[in-house]
Amino acid sequence: MRPIANTRMAAGIPTGRLAVWWVVASEIVIFGGLLASYIMHRIAHPEWGDQAANTNVWLGGFNTFVLLTSSLTAVLSHKAATAGNGPKAARLLYATCLGAVIFVCVKAFEWTTEISHGYTITSSTFWSFYYTAAGLHALHVIAGAIIMLLVAETAKKNLELHRVELIGIYWHFVDIVWIFLFPLLYIAK
Amino acid sequence: MAESIPADATHGHDVHHHAEQSFWSKYVFSTDHKMIAMQYMFTGMAMALIGGFMAYAFRMQLAFPGIEVPGYGTVTATDYNALVTNHGTIMIFWVAMPVLIAAFGNFLIPLMIGCDDMVFPKINRLSYQIFLLSAIVLISSFFVPGGGFGGGWTAYPPLSAKGEYNLTSLGSSLWLVAVALEFVAFLLGGINFVTTAMNARAPGMKMFDIPIVVWLIVVASILFMASVGPLIAGAVMLFMDQNIGTAFFDPDKGGDPVLWQHLFWFFGHPEVYVVLLPAMGITAEIMCVFARKKMFAYKTFIYTTFGTGVLSFTVWAHHQFVAGIDPRMANIFTVTTLLISIPIAEMCFIYIATLYGGSIRLTTPMLWALAFVAEFLIGGVTGIFLGASGADIYFHDTYFVLAHFHYTFFPIAIIGTFAGFTYWFPKMFGKMMNETLGKIHFWGTIIPFNGIFIPLFVLGGAGQHRRIYNYQHFPDLAGVEMQDLRVFATVSLIIMLAFQLVFFYNCFISWRKKEKDAGKNPWKANTLEWTAESPPPHGNWPELPTVYRGPYEYSVPGREEDYYPQNVPG
Ligand SMILES: [Cu+2]
User: Fold this and answer.
1) ipTM of the predicted structure?
2) CB A22 to CB B120 under 8 A?
3) Burial level of B339, CB count in 10 A (0-12/13-18/19+)?
4) CA distance B4 to chain A (A)
């Protein structure tokens, strides 16, 4: 049973959207703390650039492309949901999930290669940051994909279509975090 | 979906038929905001008893080194470290936070803004369950090999990062897990609080018709959300340093232990305001009601709160003046720290101006509210010495610091809680508490509280360092005059703890009373919660109220009664 409180809109923004924005805000601070720590260290240690050179920029770039494409399908899904076309919205969400799967597989391949070359999470502070930041982000990708599947299940039946927008907001956030991580971890010299 | 439906139109009928619920769904798995508030309240109070007992054990060791402490046994050095560490952790994260933010926030926000529940009742329940789990993890850390974490409540690495240094490797990891779980619980709760207060207000309730305490709990929740992130990241990093061997805080591998201090205090200082603001809000409500006066400068108070919130993110390094930070940085943080005393002082003046010329009634909640301001002021004033880097270098890590923050946290967590609890007890249980017992408990707490911590200021000034197991090992600190002060503080603590029995007895007999003697509005207050039944049923009102005016219209000229409830048309 939904409480009356949930149906009110005194601030003029639907409650679900408001809550997701607050979730995103607190997530920003979590990643913000981690990345600020990394940047401060990175500035103090120019020699980390040599270690960063061992990352695979091409695969990282490919993954950036994959995530950006998945954000596009998320937007199209929201558009379909606004038009009331649940099944189409669900199909587009599945496409977004496919992006997530590709991203994680590429990531797994990258990490196996790096670990086999001896760059593990305990090798140095740079590698600790590298695996922790990318790992935390990958967990968000996986969690987002799972939630997206659940949303798609209901959207398929034309139910709870507003949730398509909510997971879309979250997915854009996950995307944007990667846009920060990629240059900071892979490219910065 | 609800977006297109005008407020309240669809679900009004649901309020009326709630079938008799089973014990489990009523008390344990309830989604009712009032029941969740009670769960937080009583879990917090139980944790306060544990934290208080810890204080008793280590204070006994300090006053009478090596004795067999009645009820505890001998306090070994490892025990001592675990006790002081977890006393701090528990009192801040498992007492102040759950009681002031979660319990009062849950109880008051829906009732004061006139809606039937939080906007996400199930997330609310989940928040409490995660919190309970975190408390269980923390307590269980005492029973693992090596015992509870003993690296200080601030958990500075490298001491906290390596089992071979702190000798409590499992305990320190469980401590971190518990803290991280607790943060997740309050993030979920905070999102609920902020969204509810923003969106679920009663028809007619404008931004500046919201009672101060709701405003302040919401601002506190936002401060928490905006500050805790880096420490969550830090907790993950420290956990991996402990268990995987990552190199974030390990200088051997290029890490930096001071990084933890930044992450910890970036959260740690705003955290003071996270718990302070709800206590200040509670105080403001009580003062208006028992001075029968309109809140002085209501809007200024709220703007001041915003200012405090923003400033609180700029002061954290005043905890690190001796951690080797650049002296030029120390100057900047000295200035910001001294600046933040201005809004807080202003809020105290607003209280005084609210009281001025009022017809003051010294009920038990009012005594607690007045004591809050008086005692917190001592905490604030002694903070100025510590905020100034020049003085802090001498005072750092002495009992002066310890006494200072107890003069801030005790008024917040204990006095603020008693103020709110005695004030809203009639609403929570439908019964009045005994005033005489309430006053005995008040004086029996306040006088010994000062008896504990004034001597500790003196000891700190004399150079007594904190976190030391036995001062008899240090010739400079072993003198009989200093030992007398330690004994005095310990005896005061025991007296204060004993007087808490009066409180529990008072709760018990008041709760046991047959007749519900409180009525809807025993204090003749204006805010909406006093228009509901005491205690309010599930759904709070048969028909949700509409608001016509601000919350503090007391002694309005030309009215017969000296109060003017928010829901009365006209
Ligand atoms: Cu501070």
Assistant:
1) 0.92
2) no
3) middle
4) 9
* Helix/strand/coil (H/E/C) assignment for every residue in B431-454: CCCCHHHHHHHHHHHHHHHHHHHH
Residues 6+ apart with CB under 8 A from B108: B211, B213, B214, B217, B424, B529
CB within 8 Å of chain A, chain B residues 22-81: none
The second-level CATH assignment, the architecture, of B28-562 is Up-down Bundle (1.20)
> B562 in contact with A at a CB cutoff of 8 Å?
no
Question: And the tokens for B507?
Answer: 């709760």
Length of chain B: 570
Q: What residue segments make up the domains of chain B, in order of their start?
A: 28-562
Nearest to A40 by CA among B242, B248, B231: B248
pLDDT in tens, chain A (189 residues): 688 888 888 888 899 999 999 999 999 999 999 999 999 989 988 888 888 999 999 999 999 999 999 999 999 999 999 999 999 999 999 999 999 999 999 999 999 999 999 999 998 899 999 999 999 999 999 999 999 999 999 999 998 899 999 999 999 999 999 999 999 999 887
Identify any residues that bridge with B398 across adjacent strands, giving them in sequence order.
Answer: B465
Amino acid identity at B49: L
DSSP string computed for B12-49: GGGGT--PPPPHIIIIIS---HHHHHHHHHHHHHHHHH
- Closest-CA residue in chain A for B246? A122
DSSP B294: P
Chain B residues inside the 8 Å CB shell of A14: 1-3
Q: Which CATH number fits domain A4-187: 3.90.79.10, 3.40.50.1970, 3.20.20.70, 1.20.120.80?
A: 1.20.120.80
